[in-house]
Amino acid sequence: MSDAFGNSPVIIDAAWGVAFGLVGSGFAVTGRAQGYTSTSATSGKVIRATTYTPQGTNAQRSVNSTSANDTSAGTGARTVTVNFLDTTMASLQSETVTLNGTTAVNTVTTSLALIENIVVGSVGSGGGNAGTLQIFTATAGGGSVWGSVAASDNQTFWAHHYVPSGVTCYILNFSAGATVVAGQCNLNHSGNPLGANIPQLQIGTTIMHVGAGTWDHTFEVPLGVPGPDLVWLTERPVAATASTAVAGFEYMQF
Fold this sequence. Notes:
The protein has two domains: 114 residues, Jelly Rolls, CATH 2.60.120; 88 residues, no CATH class. Helices cover 2% and strands 46% of the residues. It is built from one helix and 16 strands. The longest helix has 6 residues.
């Protein structure tokens, strides 16, 4: 249908419209979750470069590095941003911490419960984090490490995404592959990640990929996942041969 001036409307894909800020500006977002993991068995494994143990309770945390070069004037990482949700799961929040080498620095927030990702914000001449960046369950490096960034990665590389309450995440596509071994990659969700006794369930399709290659799947109708929820990818190799699995998915959310 033409407008009052005889002009035909411009038609644009919804995901592109969100990305360009033409649709849902201020509340709609697009994003990508991607990761990798080493495999050496045929059992299923979550696609995360490092171990992640969600806490599910609000608390003040602390961050450090295993290298003295990751500090405010060092050659490695200087600042790191933690993107997180509290137990209301109302919205994604973030805090940037200035690193102090191996000495743990406390977060300002006291409501850090679930981590979307951790990203290096600024670096010195080395171009990346010299050591492993670690977030502790308690202040001053107390408790245990529940998330980390591998040395030189500059980000967590966790193929997961938390869907906040009150919005729906629409999965647009996902891809999977490996450096050596063929396998299958599944897209999973848990429902409310703060709930009890909730099973992991597969959603969408299974990607069967070859070794030393990547396969992709695009959803003709975006796969809707209403929040609160956690979406993530798992890999199941066909052989117990050392390999690195890589996978990710793209989404829009409003």
